[in-house]
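Project channel, design review

CF: Before we commit to the Mycolicibacterium llatzerense constructs, I'd like one complete example in the thread so the newer folks can see what an input/output pair looks like. Taking Short-chain dehydrogenase.
RD: sounds good, go ahead.
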Amino acid sequence: MPTAMITGASRGLGLAIAEALAPTHTLFLAGRPSAELDAVAERLGATTWPMDLTDYEGVEATVEPIVELDVLVHNAGVAYPGRVGESSVEEWRATMEVNVIGAVGLTLPLLPALRAARGQVIFVNSGAGRSPSPGLASYAASKFALRAFADALRTDEPSLRVTTVYPGRIDTDMQWNLVAYEGGEYKPERFLKPSTVAQVIAQVVATPDDAHQHEVIIRPR
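CF: and here is what came back for Short-chain dehydrogenase:
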């Protein structure tokens, strides 16, 4: 079976993506070691690739054995709710470190494996990566930067298919924290289900070889 590496697969959307790809791919679940990630891997017959995305030398050493990789899904991310005037430099640095530099730091050492498979790289972005929302200053900036990295990768690596997915608000822990910051009442039915977004991503992965989806936008009805 083709191989797929997914970051942030222990819960939420990452878990749903792993579940959606498990029937068709051998899964590599990348992330910090945890009992949750181990449980997901055991249930789906996947392998874990323990790594800290902010430890670039460690990431490079961890993925060195991978000689071919068909799909890389960048899903891991952090968000610190806050308007510009409420934010701190430390929050901006931490957000960029994971959401942008972490994605770069994993992609670069995997480029030979992705080229060998003429593979796909999928970036889970956000509606905030197209139009900033109040209270998501550093997060929106990181997603704009991630969008630019995806565009540059698509331009510079013509053998790869690179897709950015822009989901609207999803029923996850991150969303719960944002609603709590906004002072609203959390109503899951207002948001996209993780499984819905995961199915769209699985459809991108299944795109026939003669087509290349550059961007996908998904919003709640």
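RD: helpful, thanks. The beta strands are 3-7, 26-31, 47-50, 71-74, 120-124, 161-167, 215-218.
CF: The chain has a mean pLDDT of 93.
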